Design the sequence.
């Protein structure tokens, strides 16, 4: 695939994927998902008590465009674990139900500790760091 | 505006041997749910299976087709014919 000389958005996305062991690109943020598919995916991660970074793709349409170019995946949300695309909402839900998701994320299916509030689990700051790099 | 029937036919045409059940689950012609069964999925990861289906529609996904929820299944190879007695 021919690379353009400089594509800061794509580079920021690739970096975020590389930096965060679990990162979810979604519409809205974990506290206020802006789409049912994103909401379901967040709920699955939360119920496993899995820490994840979240990036809101809505603020700039180029984020979604570049993300899909990198991942070869047309829809949002997209979950990446250890730099690899795991899937969108359908695949994540299937994996959640089968127990594969917990395995992929390296968490116990039944969280032993009381679930922490979502704000403590998610790291929506990743969204900001990407946006900051756009300027 | 695409219809569930149109999506079904396009999937079945594009992926040889595929069987698709497509449902327009809001009735609005833009949110679909599809279960696709194909032998072509064998040996491919779930991601690759879904990509095969998404690729049928290209940029229409996220455009006119706002959502296409997928479930893919690997078709069992066509039922083996009962062994014919070899001509003796």
Sequence:
């Amino acid at each position: 695939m021919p690379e353009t000389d400089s594509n800061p958005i794509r580079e920021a996305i690739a970096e975020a994927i590389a930096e965060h062991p679990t990162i979810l690109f979604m519409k809205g943020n974990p506290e206020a998902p802006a789409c049912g598919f994103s909401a379901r995916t967040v709920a699955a991660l939360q119920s496993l008590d899995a820490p994840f970074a979240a990036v809101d793709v809505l603020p700039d349409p180029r984020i979604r465009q570049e993300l899909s170019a990198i991942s070869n995946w047309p829809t949002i949300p997209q979950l990446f674990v250890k730099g690899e695309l795991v899937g969108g909402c359908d695949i994540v839900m299937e994996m959640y139900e089968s127990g594969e998701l917990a395995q992929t994320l390296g968490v116990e299916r039944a969280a032993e500790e009381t679930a922490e509030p979502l704000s403590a689990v998610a790291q929506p700051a990743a969204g900001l760091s990407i946006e900051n790099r756009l300027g | 505006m695409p219809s569930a029937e149109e999506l079904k036919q396009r999937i079945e045409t594009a992926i040889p041997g595929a069987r698709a059940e497509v449902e327009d689950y809001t009735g609005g012609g833009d949110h679909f749910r599809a279960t696709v069964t194909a032998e072509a999925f064998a040996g491919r990861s779930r991601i690759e299976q879904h990509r095969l289906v998404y690729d049928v529609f290209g940029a229409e996904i996220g455009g006119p087709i706002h959502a296409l929820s997928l479930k893919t299944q690997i078709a069992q190879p066509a039922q083996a014919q009962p062994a014919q007695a070899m001509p003796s």
